[in-house]
Amino acid sequence: MDGARIAAVGVLVALAALSAGAEVFKVATLAPEGSVWMEGVRRGAAEVARRTAGRVSFRFFPGGTMGNDQSVLRKIRIGQLQGGALTAGGLAAVWADAQIYSMPLLFRSYAEVDAVRAQLDERLLAGLAERGFVSFGLVEGGFAYLLSTKPVRSFADLAGRKPWVPEGDVVGQAIFAAAGVSPVALPLADVLTGLQTGLIDTVASTPVGAVALQWFTKTKYLTDYPLIYVYGTMVLERTAFERLPAEDRAVVREVFAGVMRELDRRTRADNDAAKQALLEQGLEAVTVAPEAAKQWEVVAAQATATLSARGAYSAALYEEVQRALAAFRASGVAAPP
Amino acid sequence: MVCRLHPWRGGRALLAPLVAALCGCSAFVSKASWPLADNLLAAILDQPDPETVRQGAPAYLLLVDGLIHGAPESEALLRAGAQLYAAYASAFVTEPERARLLAATARTYGLRALCRASRRACGIEQLPFDEFAAALARLRRADVPALHAAAAAWAGWIQANSSDFRAVADTARVRAMMERVVVLDEGWDGGSAHLYLGVLDTLLPPALGGRPEEGKAHFQRAIALSGGRNLMVKVLYARHYARLVFDREEHDRLCREVLAASPAAPGLTLINTLAQQQARQLLATADEYFGE
Predict the structure, then answer these.
(1) Which secondary structure element, helix H or strand E, spans residue A86, and what is its range?
(2) Nearest by CB to B7, which of A139, A192, A282?
(3) Element (H, E) at B112
(4) Which of A122, A148, A270, A123 is nearest to A200 (CA)?
(5) CA torsion through residues B187, B193, B199, B202, sign
């Protein structure tokens, strides 16, 4: 087929799509091209395009080309974008409770995470939808652990350290404030250099993040104590989504729910492998003794109270999370973190 | 303090690019004492038909295995084995299981070659990362051929295992090895260490700590050092740098230059032919990628 004919066919397809009221969702994310995230959502987009005969299509902006979570949200509000893959921390700007699972030391194990999420994920999705963002499922980022150049066994060990917090991370700020330590705020991109130059010496990250961003090459210890549960999701702007005919909405919902589920499951296994990789690369695992753990819990409770006072989450939802946790703990199903 | 990353994983993202980096390889055709192995390699690298290599290479792999069996301490043969296995696994094998197996053989041969070149490097892969980096600092210019071969084979092994984070973590080691090659003898193998560093610097977007401009400088240095004859450099430059920074003009210019050039060059004909295939694919998918 020659170029002219291809072009002609292209125009026809485009016209057909237009006449049927094509909807293009421009979606931005920090995930780089070729990552499992991007592969997943591109696969989903292709399936949606096929099943809606091209009426619904997606255009992705990977690798942070549209800026961080806050600028993506801003661009969604002004209609420049119709969606984004965002972290729970980023979504907290839309609805504080979106990051309820990220309260410090909330979960002790993945078994607890699974028990609570099974009960409350739908609530979080409904809360986001009420505020104009449609999500098809939360995706685990995993537990963040401390990585440091000197061992951190207790909060006392943090004295004099230079921990990193991402710019605008209220949870991280609250934890360090409760521990009486002043953290250094840096953009993600500057963390590796910061570790190298000694500007910072302690970071918290999921194992996957520590491997992918190579932070492990500048740290020596991993405190084997889950600090925070990190997660994210892809959201679409609700009015754009609701412009779709009902049958197309159903397709998008079904396909992307599947993609999110798959990504959610896969992260768990990747973090397990990444954590093992960190130890194989020579990081030393530091354990937190029971007495020290009690102290951490006191500090976490202070941080959580501070966050509550600042309206970083609603007491009602937090209580529900706590009730679900208590029920799970009482059921006696124990599992290691 | 928490890395609030999306749960994206480096995985395939990180290393898929190295697929093409089966290097110029001309450098490892040594003048040493294994004319048969050298001649075979030269013939493969000068082959203009990739399909012939795809079909014929397994026999050569067995042959190199046999030669190594007969002379297990020959650095030159071990290097040849590493390069052949790595190149075949990354460029021609599509079944993941086979690719992993062959890439593992390449890595083992590469590390054995490095150990033969310098006793300081024996067992280096078992060391924690900081000791590993310190051990590299003790290697000398004479160790560069084996160091480069081992690093390239290791990169291929990571690529074959790119869905396993335990393998992906070794990316830092490959980077450290290639950085050492650049310090000791940057022109080795037509500057291909710069090519690897260019890819490594452009795997992540700037928001995540990627360094596209440093990567670009590495690609340009690799072009200069290879006298522009290794067309794969421009393909990787386009795929990684130009796509990462969304520079359509640069992307298309690089691809068109690759297609306009003659692929025939001593030691580079095969790789250049593959580079032209990939340049065509890049151009064919550019509209979709750049959203035009």
Answers:
(1) strand A83-87
(2) A139
(3) helix B96-117
(4) A148
(5) negative
Q: Count CB pairs under 8 A between chains A and B.
A: 201
Nearest by Cα to A38 from A28, A48, A47: A28
Classify strands A83-87 and A221-237 as parallel, antiparallel or unpaired: antiparallel
pLDDT tens sequence across A187-240: 888 999 999 999 999 999 999 999 999 999 999 999 999 999 999 999 999 999
CA–CA separation, B148 and B170 (whole Å):
15
Considering chain B, what is the average pLDDT of its residues? 87
pTM recorded for the entire structure:
0.86
Q: Are residues B171 and B200 in contact, defined by beta-carbon separation less than 8 angstroms?
A: yes
Side chain identity, residue B13: A
Asked if B286 and B252 touch (Cβ cutoff 8 Å), the reply is yes
Task: Give pLDDT tens digits for B225-258.
Answer: 999 999 999 999 999 999 999 899 999 999 999 9
Structure tokens at B7: 């749960």
**B186-223: pLDDT as tens digits:** 999 999 999 999 999 998 888 888 999 999 999 999 99
Q: B200-223: buried (b, 16+ CB within 10 Å) or exposed (e) per residue? A: bbbbbbbbbbbbbeebbbbbebbb
Asked whether B112 and B78 are in contact (CB, 8 A), the reply is yes
Single-letter amino acid, residue A206: T
The answer to whether A219 contacts chain B (CB < 8 Å) is: no
Backbone angles phi, psi at B265, to 5 degrees: -160, 140
**Cα dihedral B208→A35→B212→A90 (10° resolution):** -30
CB of A44 within 8 Å of a chain B CB? The answer is: no
Pick the closest to residue B25 from B16, B35, B38 (CA basis).
B38
A276 Cβ contact partners less than 8 Å away, ≥ 6 residues apart: B166
